[in-house]
Amino acid sequence: MRQQLQPTTIAILGTKTVVEKTLAQLLEVEGYSTRLLKTSSTQAVNEQQLAGVDLVLLSPGLTRGDCEALLGSLRSTPQRTTTNSPIPVIALCSPMSEAPVVEEAVRSVLWPIPFEHLAEEIEAMLEGRLPPGYRLDRSDPDVIILLSPSGSVVSRFSGRGAAQQTIEREAWEDYWERGLPA
User: Fold this and answer.
1) What mean pLDDT do residues 99-122 have?
2) Is 72 exposed, middle or buried (0-12, 13-18, 19+ CB in 10 A)?
3) What share of residues in the chain are helix, strand, coil (percent, to 5)?
4) Is beta strand 33-38 parallel, antiparallel or unpaired with respect to 135-140?
5) Are strands 33-38 and 55-58 parallel, antiparallel or unpaired?
6) Collapsing DSSP states into helix, strand and coil, what is residue 143?
7) Which residue ranges form the domains of the chain, and what is each CATH number?
8) pLDDT by residue (tens digit) across 27-74?
């Protein structure tokens, strides 16, 4: 069983306000690596900016139009994951604004939100990319345990620095080794 110390990377797309900077600091305290990307509806997100990113967080300061333009830009950027699934996106929306386009890999979350709930939303989005039946046991804050559909331990990872892509890759490799149906 392998252990990975590279943290999950979250790109925060916004206008570099205090909100984005504060979110980045809070996420880093929780063990995530963050990347602040200043953007708008007229600026496309390029592949290099997203290299190594596990999840994108759209700032609550972005307009619906900005969110939709950024989502279009994200979807046109080649993804580099083992499953070729799109990078999951969480759009933070104020109660007065409409949620951006709803897609499978996009979740709209009402803003403001207690930080603990945001962390839960992030983990739920990241876990959605595991093979069918696979799940993560996070009962110990220091260790993330990847479990197969039968409940057997596939691998253990550092609870403070496991890269989501590494966990996904390990899960998919186990899935294919077991010859489970696609």
Assistant:
1) 74
2) middle
3) 30, 25, 45
4) unpaired
5) unpaired
6) strand
7) 9-129 (3.40.50.2300)
8) 998 888 999 988 765 566 777 788 888 889 988 888 777 787 788 777
Q: Which residues pair with 147 in a beta bridge?
A: 135, 153
d(CA 111, CA 93): 5
Measured CA to CA, the distance from residue 149 to residue 103 in angstroms comes to 26
Angle, alpha carbons 80-30-11 (nearest 5°) = 35
Residue 12's SS3 state is: strand
Find out whether 13 and 39 touch, Cβ atoms under 8 Å: yes
User: Which stretches of 76-163 are DSSP H helices?
Assistant: 115-127
Alpha carbon distance 73, 39 (integer Å): 11
Query: Long-range contacts: 62-67, Cβ < 8 Å, 24+?
Result: 62/13, 62/14, 62/15, 62/91, 63/97, 64/97, 64/98, 64/100, 65/41, 66/39, 66/40, 66/41, 67/91, 67/100, 67/101
Nearest residue to 15 (alpha-carbon basis) of 35, 33, 40: 40
Tokens of 82: 């083992």
pTM higher than 0.70 for the full model?
A: no
